[in-house]
C-alpha cells in the first residue's frame, strides 16, 4: 500500500470518532493545549484522552511540542486539506458546475443581460 493511501486511511480512521473530532475542535479553538487542559473539556479520563490523541498524532493531525516540562498539542490541518483536495473537492466541482448551468438556464443564454 502506498504511503499516501495509508496516510489517508489513518486520517479517515481518526476523523471517524466523535471524541477525536472534539479534540480537533478544541485545538482549533485554542491551539497548543496540554493534555490536562484537553481532559478538562473532554469529559473523559486522562488515559482515554491519551489514546485518542495518540491516534490523532499517528494520523499526523496533531503534533506535539515540548515547552520545558509541558507537552503542548497543536492541530495540523494539512492532512485534512489533503483529504479535502482528494475526496471532497472533485464532488464540489460537479455541484458548482450544475449550479452554474442552472443559473445560465434560469437567467437565459445572455447571462441576464438585456
UniProtKB/TrEMBL annotation:
UniProtKB keywords: DNA-binding
Signal peptide: none
Residue ranges constituting the HTH arsR-type domain according to the UniProt record: 1-95
GO molecular function, one term: DNA-binding transcription factor activity
Any single Pfam family the record assigns to this protein: HTH_20
Residues spanning the membrane: none
CDD domains: HTH_ARSR
Xref: PANTHER family: TRANSCRIPTIONAL REGULATORY PROTEIN
The protein's name in its UniProt record: DNA-binding helix-turn-helix protein
Amino acid at each position: 500500500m502506498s504511503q499516501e493511501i495509508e496516510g489517508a486511511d489513518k486520517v479517515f480512521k481518526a476523523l471517524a470518532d466523535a471524541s477525536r473530532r472534539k479534540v480537533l475542535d478544541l485545538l482549533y479553538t485554542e491551539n497548543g493545549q496540554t493534555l490536562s487542559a484537553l481532559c478538562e473539556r473532554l469529559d473523559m479520563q486522562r488515559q482515554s484522552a491519551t489514546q485518542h490523541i495518540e491516534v490523532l498524532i499517528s494520523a499526523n493531525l496533531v503534533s506535539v511540542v515540548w515547552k520545558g516540562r509541558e507537552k503542548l498539542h497543536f492541530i495540523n490541518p494539512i492532512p485534512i486539506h489533503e483529504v479535502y483536495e482528494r475526496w471532497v473537492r472533485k464532488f464540489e466541482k460537479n455541484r458548482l458546475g450544475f449550479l452554474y448551468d442552472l443559473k445560465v438556464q434560469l437567467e437565459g443564454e445572455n447571462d441576464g443581460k438585456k
